[in-house]
Each structure stands twice: as structure tokens, then as C-alpha cells.
């Protein structure tokens, strides 16, 4: 299953790689293929100081967490997303959060699910009959189900 991770998911995972979100990315790559937009790497590095301040990480701790999370996500250059899909996504997220247009466009382009914790985005998209989002709890349930099936298969 292809999963597009948005900014808030990746930032949460870096800030707490031992938490549910971080562990889903670290351990979930056996069952899910994680993708995001290429610009997100730049955004993370632009906010490195803020991440260090919030987390209390040293530079080394940040780097370890950053690598643990980002190496499990495939970053897709936005130029690979067709203009038509970007335009449709901009229109879709208009009046919700236009900053999420690239994540929605990538979701559509890869025929994936958009993993976001942004309740305003989820609600706004659902009102527009867009059902390609997945919450952390929904993804975690899928993860546990797949793990259980693996365990039962091995017995």
C-alpha cells in the first residue's frame, strides 16, 4: 500500500521517533511504501533550529532521528507530478489549506492514501467527497493486522 506522508507526520516522527508515528514509519516499511514531496526535506532543514529547540536534541540526536525517518520515505520531485493533477489539487484544497496541494497531487498521482494528522484538512476534503486520507489510528490498525497475519502464517 502506498502512503503519502505530509509535513506534520514527518515532523512528528522526527521529534519522537519512538512514538506511534515514528514507529509506524520505521517498522511499517515492511507493509507500506512511504512517499512525500521532495520539498519536504528542505522544509525540515529550514526548521532544524525549531526542532532542536522543541525536542532538546543535540545536532547528533537530530541527525540520527532525521536519518532514521527520512531513509524510509521516498522523496518525489514535484516536477514528476503532472501539472493537471497539481491544478486539480490546488482547486480541491482551496479554502482548506493550499499548502497541502502538492501532497494531495502526489496522493492522486501515485494512487495512494494521504496520511495526515491535520483534522481541518481531513474534514475539508471529506466535505468535498475526497476519501483518500488515512489517520494515524487507521494506519496503525492496518499495521497491527498485517503483523498479526505474519505471525499466524509463521506458526
Structural account:
- It is globular, with a radius of gyration of 16 Å.
- It contains nine helices and five strands, in the order βααβαααβααβαβα.
- It has a single domain, classed as 3-Layer(aba) Sandwich (Rossmann fold).
- 30% of the residues are buried.
- With 155 residues, the protein is an alpha/beta fold.
- α1 crosses α2, α2 packs across α9 and α6 packs across α7.
- Strands 3-2-1-4-5 form a five-stranded parallel β-sheet.
- Helices cover 61% and strands 12% of the residues.
- The protein starts with a strand and ends with a helix.
Record keyword descriptors for this entry.
globular; alpha/beta; Rossmann fold; 155 residues; five-stranded parallel β-sheet
CATH topology: Rossmann fold
Average of pLDDT: 94
The percentage of residues in β strands lies in 5-15%
- Helical residue percent band: 55-70%
Largest sheet: 5 strands, parallel
CATH architecture: 3-Layer(aba) Sandwich
Find the count of extended strands (DSSP E, 2+ residues).
Answer: 5
Tertiary shape = globular
Give the uncertain stretches in residue-range form: none
Which radius of gyration do the C-alpha atoms yield?
16 Å
Number of helical runs? 9
Which sequence of SSEs, written as H and E, runs from N to C? EHHEHHHEHHEHEH
Terminal residue distance: 25 Å
Would you identify the CATH H-level superfamily? 5'-nuclease
Amino acid at each position: 500500500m502506498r502512503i503519502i506522508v505530509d509535513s506534520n507526520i514527518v515532523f512528528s516522527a522526527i521529534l519522537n521517533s519512538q512514538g506511534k508515528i515514528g514507529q509506524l514509519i520505521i517498522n511499517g516499511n515492511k507493509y507500506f511504501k512511504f512517499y512525500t514531496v521532495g520539498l519536504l526535506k528542505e522544509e525540515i532543514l529550514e526548521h532544524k533550529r525549531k526542532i532542536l529547540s522543541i525536542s532538546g536534541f543535540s545536532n547528533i540526536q537530530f541527525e540520527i532521528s532525521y536519518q532514521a525517518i527520512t531513509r524510509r520515505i521516498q522523496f518525489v520531485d514535484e516536477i514528476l507530478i503532472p501539472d493537471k493533477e497539481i491544478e486539480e489539487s490546488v482547486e480541491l484544497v482551496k479554502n482548506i489549506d493550499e499548502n497541502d496541494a502538492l501532497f494531495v497531487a502526489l496522493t492522486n498521482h501515485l494512487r495512494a492514501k494521504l496520511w495526515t494528522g491535520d483534522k481541518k484538512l481531513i474534514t475539508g476534503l471529506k466535505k468535498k467527497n475526497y476519501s483518500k486520507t488515512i489517520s494515524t489510528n487507521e494506519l496503525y490498525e492496518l499495521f497491527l493486522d498485517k503483523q498479526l497475519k505474519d505471525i499466524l502464517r509463521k506458526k
